[in-house]
Every structure is written in C-alpha cells, then in structure tokens.
Amino acid sequence: MKALSRHLEATVRDRLGASPAVVLLGPRQVGKTTLARRIAADWPGGATYLDLERPADKLRLADADAYLREQRGKLVVIDEIQHAPDLFNTLRGIIDERRAAGDRHGHFLLLGSAALELMHQASESLAGRVAYLDLAPFTLDEITPVGIDENSLWLRGGFPESLLAADDKSSLDWRRDFIRAYLQRDVPMFAPRLPAATVGRLWVMLAHLQGSPFNQARLASSLGVSAPAVGRYVDLLVDLKLVRRLPPWHGNLGKRLTKAPKLYIRDSGLTHALLELETRDQLLGHPVTGPSYEGMVIENLIEAAGERRTACYFRTADGAEVDLVLERGGKPELAIEIKRSSAPSLDRGFAIACDDLGIAERYVVYPGDECFPLRHGARALGLEALITRLRQSAT
C-alpha cells in the first residue's frame, strides 16, 4: 500500500521555519510521532528525538540545559512533553539566547496529548515563542489516494492502527484497548481526583447521545454526581482531544437561540467501540447511525476548513437549524447540513436559518458522489468534494 501522508506536515514545516518552537497536539496514537519522525528524517542539520516516557531519554535530560545546548543546529523533537513541565523554562532561555544571536526558527518540535495542561505550561514560559497545531485522526481525502473508502473511515475511525487493521474485529479490539488505556492510565495521570470508572460511564453516555446539546443536569442525574463534576469530566475529555464541544452561534438576531453546546465524540470509530458496534451492518441497525455520520462529517470539515475559520452550529427556539456553520473573521461564511441519505432534502428551517445568518453558500453533505442543486439555494455534494473546496479556500 502507498504510504499515507498528512496534510498537516507542510504546515508543521512552515511553522518551524517561522517559529523557534512548535507544539503539536493530539490524542495518543493519532500519528504525532510518525509525523515528527518524517519531518526529522530530512531536517537540515539533522534531528534528535526524545520520548519522555522512556527512562533512557529522561536520563539524557538530567542536565537538560547542557544537553539541549549541545544540539544546536539540530531539530529537537520532544515527545510527551507534558511529563516535564520544568523543561519549558530551560527551553525559554535557550530560545531567547539563540534569537538574540539571530537564529530565530526551527529549534524544537514538542509533542503532547493533553491540550489545556500543555498549553498552560507552555504559555507561561514560551509566550510569543511557540506555535500550536492540532493533529486529528485521518481525514477522508488523506486515505482515498491509497484506496480506503468513506465507509471504512466511518466505521473504524481515523486512528491509524484502527483504520489499517486487518479486519473489523481486529480494528474494534484495538479501539477497546485504546479506551481501556485512557481510562486506566491517562485519566489518573491528568486528573487524579476524577474517578476513571465514572469518566468511562460518561464516555459511553456521550456515545449514545452523540451530537446532542449538553444537558449537564441530565447527565449528572444519570451518573449520580453533581453537575459541576460532570462539567469537569467533560472538560477532561475535551482537553484530551477525545470529545468536541461544538458551540452554538451567538449573535443578536432578535430571536431565542439555543445556548448549550453540542457534544460529539470526535472519532467515529471510538463512538462505535463504546457502543460495541463491530460491523457496518450493526452500525446501520443502531439509532446512532445518523448522529455518528454527522459527527464524522463535522470532524472532517472542521479539519479541512483551516485555522482561519471557526465552527459552530445554529438553532433557534422555533426550530430553524444548521448542523455546521463556518465563520471567518466573525462573519458566517458557509452553512452545511448533513444527511445520511441517498436522496437528501431540506426543510424550510434550514433556509430560514441561512437567511437569518446572511449565508449564501449553502451545502448538504450526503454519502454520494454526485453534485446537484437543491431548493433554498443549497447544493448537495459528497464529503470529499466539500473537503476539497474547503482546503482550496482555507488560505
């Protein structure tokens, strides 16, 4: 099979050319290390790779200041950087000295899987010296060149080991182990006061409620915990890049708008593993089918939309709704409805919502390849076609 490539690779290289340090964020096993090693393999001047979960590499940093200064001229890749928060002060001193000498870019590529914790640590010491990038699971346009189709991505999700497994059973086994490892290892590591078993139960509930507005009181009642506790559990899953909190659109339209964010498990394969859905037939017979497809599409489109666009959804108390609104510069730019149907149709509420927001560019994503007009000024098209349009207009 032809090697899979990541769209983010070019962006990481560009940022390293303009910034002393780049922080690459993403959940475990998403491919951060593979991407970093690809970049390091042909970096001018060579590169050094350190994994802070390996005792031998941690020993190399016993005198971090001396060791890192010896690597001048190389790209230093430090994996699982959140395990060494004291390292950020050392990095700051080295970066500032090199910048003063006119060497202003390409020193450090830092990899981490806990976004808020890592960004907090880095922002205190590396403010103005670091760029942040997110690596998501594989998107549809990254896998179709090697012959993997949309249904495989939807069922198995975009984590490399799951997507490329020999069969559906092996894929599901990998995702079960992934979930178990997060609950047994990462939850206690990043949030030692939160009970991992309760976080696991919440994770399963969110799979059943995929794409639903966040009802904190309802979840708290089901779990037998307080509403603030549920908020902390959700914050952790969001921080670990496992759950997306999609905000509602906020603006002054003179209408009552839904204020609760929607919650999506970001990888469709994890959604299905949490619900014990192994095959496509099992998925198609489950109530989560539509919400799961919606979540998969949203993740792909947000990744393709680029950093200059922000994402939200729109819903009024009267039922006017858009599944995904992409904004640029605070102005709504695209309205996207998601229909898992070979013959998608739109109701009047979509048109009202688009008119309220002043959006002329309206799309319906459906599981097909043809592009054709619909009423209310919208066009139906497949996911990969819209991904291509978004990437072309992202800059």
Report a brief summary of the structure.
The protein has 395 residues and is an alpha/beta fold. 45% of the residues lie in helices and 17% in strands.
Return the average pLDDT rounded to an integer: 91
Largest sheet: 6 strands, mixed
How large is the share of residues in beta strands? 15-25%
**Strand order, sheet with most strands:** 9-10-11-12-14-13
Alpha-beta content class: alpha/beta
* Count of folded domains: 2
Q: Report how far the terminal alpha carbons are from each other.
A: 31 Å
Oligomeric state of shown chains? single chain
Task: Note poorly predicted spans.
Answer: none
Helix content: 40-55%
Overall 3D form: globular
Count up the helices.
Answer: 18
- The number of strands is 14
Gyration radius (Cα, Å) is: 22 Å
Describe this structure as you would to a colleague.
Helix 10 (168-190) crosses helix 14, helix 11 packs across helix 13 and helix 16 runs parallel beside helix 18 (383-392). The chain has 395 residues and is of the alpha/beta class. It is built from 18 helices and 14 strands. The protein has 2 domains: 8-134, Rossmann fold (3-Layer(aba) Sandwich), CATH 3.40.50.300; 140-392, no CATH class. The radius of gyration is 22 Å and the shape is globular.
